[in-house]
Amino acid sequence: xxxxxxxxxxxxxxxxxxxxxxxxxxxxxxxxxxxxxxxxxxxxxxxxxxxxxxxxxxxxxxxxxxxxxxxxxxxxxxxxxxxxxxxxxxxxxxxxxxxxxxxxxxxxxxxxxxxxxxxxxxxxxxxxxxxxxxxxxxxxxxxxxxxxxxxxxxxxxxxxxxxxxxxxxxxxxxxxxxxxxxxxxxxxxxxxxxxxxxxxxxxxxxxxxxxxxxxxxxxxxxxxxxxxxxxxxxxxxxxxxxxxxxxxxxxxxxxxxxxxxxxxxxxxxxxxxxxxxxxxxxxxxxxxxxxxxxxxxxxxxxxxxxxxxxxxxxxxxxxxxxxxxxxxxxxxxxxxxxxxxxxxxxxxxxxxxxxxxxxxxxxxxxxxxxxxxxxxxxxxxxxxxxxxxxxxxxxxxxxxxxxxxxxxxxxxxxxxxxxxxxxxxxxxxxxxxxxxxxxxxxxxxxxxxx
Length: 450
Hints:
By secondary structure, this protein is of the alpha+beta class. It has 13 helices and 5 strands. 28% of the residues are buried. It starts with 7 loop residues before the first helix and ends in a 15-residue tail after the last strand. A 5-stranded mixed sheet has the order 1-2-3-5-4, with helices on one face. Helix 12 links the parallel strand 1 and strand 2 (373-380). The protein has helices spanning 8-62, 69-91, 114-122, 125-143, 145-158, 161-168, 183-187, 189-219, 223-277, 282-310, 313-330, 347-368, 404-412; strands spanning 335-340, 373-380, 383-390, 417-421, 428-435. Keywords: ATP-binding, Kinase, Membrane, Nucleotide-binding, Phosphoprotein, Transferase, Transmembrane, Transmembrane helix, Two-component regulatory system. Pfam families: HATPase_c, HisKA_3, Sensor. This is histidine kinase. It is an enzyme of class 2 (transferase).
């Protein structure tokens, strides 16, 4: 009797199914596990720094009558408080509850004297809101430790650690059994561990959310502070916009003077000389006219390039979606494009978005070492979102001279934002948002470009 063939294919299918199941399970527990680890970090930060900084603040205030020591000490302690609270503000992004920084800028004269620096710190309402939050924040931050403890304690039961210890240690307890006096109770540690594990995974995200939600009541800028921050932001972006426009005007003037204008002057001289030679030396005149024709072509090309740098004709002809697809086709690597724009942004926003995507794609080509890139454009909730990513080496930062700082300034002129995610090893994802409304509806469909 011949033996049946070995069922290789079903094993591969079962392996694929097992891998898929593990992936699904991990995707389900990943948020809770990440929140538990983040809760440990928040708890350590809150428990180790908040109480200490509160005590230092009280001592520095109490020392004000003592030879004025507090006048110098309190601003120094405030710097430490703001560093700690600033870190909490950055951690709040873990729970999608970002907390803005509300501090007033230091006046120029505050750097010159102890009293002026003290008066600046004391006169900032955010100083006292930070101070009021330190002790409550220590309690809510410490509560975030509960999620991590439940997960760790649950894993102890799931991995049968209580059973092993029961068999090797005279006295041990776990869960509801203290002590475990028989083997049955030791085995029951496993189901208890599963309950504790899933309970910790479920509660950890909520503990972090509650902590940062509570922190927002103290640390979020007041209405007056928000208006002041808004004015400062607008003043800064206005200054950047003016500087950018001035630099652009100088570039246009320089390009016209050194390029098209010089060629037009040479063209005029060639035509004038050809006119003088036309009667005496027709051959030389013909040669000069040919050179003038070539010069006029070069001048026209330079003028077209100059206009393209101001407002690309492809935007007027094909809109933002078509212009971005044209950019993708010009990049020497495969680029997937997904554009979902039911209408057209304002011309100024459209131009800013086009040049921003062009600059990021240039960075991808020059610096990333990527084999593939992608572009996503969409509009929702009154904001145009542009995402450019690549599978390159990562490590991109806006301040590393890669042109991303210029993109950020360009977007800031329209109250836009840019976020760069680029861990070492990649991928790099640049997310840009521009608040705007869409006008006339487009008919061109979304497409991919490879």
